[in-house]
């Protein structure tokens, strides 16, 4: 089965950047961290949740890449973002990333996004991230995530 156009876009970006990672698109949903973990057979903590927030004063997008085992507390992010933040609405998410909620990848967005990486993800050797659709994922080396995304590593454990 060929990849859908959004999943293929992420495969192309990975290839262009020289990563030897393969996007897998399944029939079953990998929309949530729990579904993705069940689908690929890993711990929920090894799933990268890609959450888009929005700065309340700047309006800018902020991407939080957190372990599927953690819940993000917005009050902790504001100390790094230097402003209050709120969860972005689905339209804003699509506008700034080019992808829909449930399939937001860690890279390949329409515009560069200020990014934070949960240090808990770096406790694993391999992690799985969404690849552009709620049915597409890819496995990667956790240690590559900060460089791949330009993200700042911060503590986010709940
Ligand atoms: N494909 C999976 C794992 S690879 C995935 O993308 N998981 S996720 O956690 O990154 O994306 C789903 C998350 O989107 C949910 O945890 C939830 O926090 C967020 N979300 C769901 N609905 C909305 C909504 N209406 N507005 C903003 N965020 C939402």
Automatic annotation (TrEMBL):
CDD domains: ProX_deacylase (cd04333). Transmembrane segments: none annotated. SUPFAM superfamilies: YbaK/ProRS associated domain. Residues 28-145 form the YbaK/aminoacyl-tRNA synthetase-associated domain. GO terms for molecular function: aminoacyl-tRNA deacylase activity. InterPro entries: YbaK/aa-tRNA-synt-asso_dom_sf, YbaK/aa-tRNA-synth-assoc-dom. Signal peptide: none annotated. It comes from the Bacteria. This is YbaK/EbsC family protein.
């Amino acid at each position: 089965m060929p990849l859908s156009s959004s999943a293929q876009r992420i495969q192309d970006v990975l290839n262009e950047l020289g990563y030897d990672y393969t996007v897998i698109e399944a029939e079953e949903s990998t929309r949530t961290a729990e579904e993705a973990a069940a689908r690929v057979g890993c711990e929920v903590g090894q799933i990268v949740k890609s959450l888009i927030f929005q700065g309340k004063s700047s309006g800018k997008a902020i991407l939080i890449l957190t372990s599927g085992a953690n819940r993000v507390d917005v009050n902790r992010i504001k100390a790094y973002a230097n402003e209050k933040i709120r969860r972005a609405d689905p339209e804003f998410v699509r506008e700034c990333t080019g992808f829909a909620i449930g399939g937001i990848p860690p890279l390949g967005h329409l515009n560069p996004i200020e990014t934070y990486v949960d240090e808990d993800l770096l406790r694993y050797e391999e992690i799985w991230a969404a690849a552009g659709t709620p049915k597409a994922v890819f496995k990667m080396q956790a240690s590559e995530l900060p460089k791949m995304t330009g993200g700042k590593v911060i503590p986010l454990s709940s």
